[in-house]
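Hi W.,

Here's what went into the run:
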Amino acid sequence: MKSDERSEAIFLLNWSQATVNISIFPLRDFPLINPGDPLADIIVDELRKMDLKDRDIIVIAHTIVSKAENKVFDLETITPSPFALEIGKRQEKDPRKIEVILRESSEIIRMNDNVLITATHHGFICANSGIDKSNTPGETVISLPDDPDSSARQIREVIKKKLEKDVAIIISDTFGRPLRVGTVNFAIGLAGIAPLEDIRGKKDLFGYELKSTIIARVDEVAAAAGIVMGQADEGTPIIIVRGVEYSISNESARELIREPTKDVFR
Amino acid sequence: MKSDERSEAIFLLNWSQATVNISIFPLRDFPLINPGDPLADIIVDELRKMDLKDRDIIVIAHTIVSKAENKVFDLETITPSPFALEIGKRQEKDPRKIEVILRESSEIIRMNDNVLITATHHGFICANSGIDKSNTPGETVISLPDDPDSSARQIREVIKKKLEKDVAIIISDTFGRPLRVGTVNFAIGLAGIAPLEDIRGKKDLFGYELKSTIIARVDEVAAAAGIVMGQADEGTPIIIVRGVEYSISNESARELIREPTKDVFR
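Here's what came out:
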């Protein structure tokens, strides 16, 4: 490397240290996960390639968690109920998939000829209970993990034990949204990070207290990671987000679910 | 700088070039904007401090756009209508602020003793028509810009002309959301970037076509920028997001508004 290239490298490094606040990058070449795989151990092995730092946030697409935890349903083994058959006919969809959606739900929130929006047993409101066909071989569908917080905590603990790094974990899924077109990545499971950042009581530039600003920090981070999950090659389920200020917490992603009685859109 | 520091700098630079996909950093020390200020020129002058690159995305908090465009209302000059007086009484809020909210709205979407959710004249659905008290001196409130896309396009053109860089602009605001607790930054004005990224037709790992995935790319980017807007010192309204793959487009942020008849939550 020539001397001027070296100076330029040092200049760029200094510049980037001075100005880069947050960086987002994928854990490349992550292996395909199969049902029953020891996911936390596999993640730890892959993270050894990276220069992981304390307070990094690791965002994990729920699909690999669900697969490792056997939340894969072979449609050949599913017998739809009369109700699932009726919805399947109305929506022109596989009634066996509808049956899995209903089994994974606690409540139907909206339903018409096109959409089936449910509350999952965790309380998350999303289309089709988060059941998805893609990224799974054969006549199978994949659901959300049973307890995404618990999955996240387990991965966090194994990283802490084996790599001696104190990181936060967000397990994410891509949901549609009321009112706005297009999907965005959301947090559905957490470990070691507060879901909400309460900036009430902070003063603005003119000394007023900001009244009602509770920021959904983990949804912001999940959305940010979603950019890289989406634009990287297929099979990039793990994204590292570095440089985010956050509060360490044991709270659940369920803190993000608006209480039904306080939700004017429910 | 010692030789080993130099090698480390070069190593770190190479490492960061290899792995950092997206970086997010603020335009620091941005001056306070006053009504009537030539915002695009001020932004260009401040951006000269930065190593701006083609395809950078510049996310701008709507407040500085609204202020420059005189969308600041002195409550002393506002006479509330009988309806605004009634809502103000019911919600224990300043009826003059309610009056501004109603004037900036095209439709009331939800209203009870606590919340007033409207469609703005642009069609965005948010609390209080996006009217905010904070960051404005005296008895004043600030609204959304009249045409955020047009504001974004003007800033983009001035940057192109004076700095010869081809960037995208997102004007953003922080909204609450149906179903989930906490606010997140959303895109309300766009220039030079497609609001939605359509990945239908892409195949997943097993060769299935992904069925219904239209990603709200600009909302992901606005949310990501919101992390830095929120965690930086007060008065950090401009964030640069680098490394996002996006389609250049003249489409409006209004493409993100779900058609009322297709919105099961409206």
